[in-house]
Amino acid sequence: MKRALTKSTKPSSGLRRNRRRKPLLVLFRLVLSFAVLGVLWCGYILWSINSVTIPKTIPKADVAVVLGAALWNDRPSPGLKERLDHAYALYKEGKTDKLILTGGLDHNGSKLTEAEGMRRYLTGLGVPPDKLLLEPKATSTYENMLFSKAIIDREKFKSVIIVTHDYHTARSKEIAKYVGIERPVMAPFKSDVLKPVYNETREVLAFTKWKVDAVAMQFGVEIKVPEIAYFNH
Fold first, then answer.
1. How confident is the model at residue 224 (pLDDT cuts 50, 70, 90)?
2. Which residue range(s) make up the domain with 208?
3. Same structural domain for residues 104 and 209?
4. Beta strands at 75-76 and 71-72: parallel, antiparallel or unpaired
5. Chain centroid, CA 6 distance in Å
């Protein structure tokens, strides 16, 4: 009788194995769930990036904001040159009378701010210096928009064009509205020099960072870290 009771109270080997497997199963399900959510999130961001269409015409505006990118040896990198050429074309077409050039030091060895490098390039094309307004402090797209908004308010501009690459447009527009730029007209274009897969991949990360920062700022916390996609082109 004693032997039978002892035997019945001992857990079976199968039960012990199930108990050991249960935490692993829970962990596997959590990892799988996060992986699925990650794939869905990346898909949503890529859809947002690629849903941008290139407008056939751009309406006139008081000012165009040209978003900065890297300088190479104090000269515009190929990607930044594309943005400046696009802005210059809008200026020559009479779509805008003033340009805000926004971008600080990009920490890659350049001695000039991006704004100053952009100014030198455009004046070299013949744009009068008094048509160019410099914002030389921004180190992210959020700061590009925030600091440009201060210039827009100071100069009492009522309508704004934002010049950047197509893959950068969705996030730029969202941030512009976040800082209070009303009804921004986006002037996106496709790059002839940048690698789309590489830049879209970094833009997914930068867009995700912006979403996290936006939530943090709602609680009064501002994360002062340069965005992943900023020091490029």
1. low
2. 61-218
3. yes
4. antiparallel
5. 67
Looking at the structure, tell me whether residues 93 and 206 fall in a common domain.
Answer: yes
Of 199, 198, 201, which Cα lies nearest the Cα of 188? 199
Is pTM beyond 0.70? Reply is yes
Contact of 152 with 181, CB cutoff 8 Å: yes
Does 228 score more than 50 pLDDT? no
Closest to 70 measured CA to CA, from 117, 126, 25, 32: 117
Q: Which of 208, 156, 169 is nearest to 42 (CA)?
A: 208
Would you call 14 exposed, middle or buried from its count of C-beta atoms within 10 A (0-12, 13-18, 19+)? exposed
Residue 160 in tokens? 């704004």
Any domain includes 55: no
Is 116:82 a contact under the CB 8 Å cutoff? no
Q: Do 124 and 34 fall within a single domain?
A: no
Let me know whether 41 and 65 are in one domain.
Answer: no
Q: Tens digit of pLDDT for each residue in 170-202?
A: 999 999 999 999 999 999 999 999 998 998 999
- Please indicate, yes or no, whether residues 80 and 155 belong to a single structural domain of this protein: yes
20-35: string of b/e by CB count within 10 Å (b at 16+)? eeeeeeeeeeeeeeee
Residues 136 and 79 in one domain: yes
The label of the residue with tokens 């990198």 reads 77
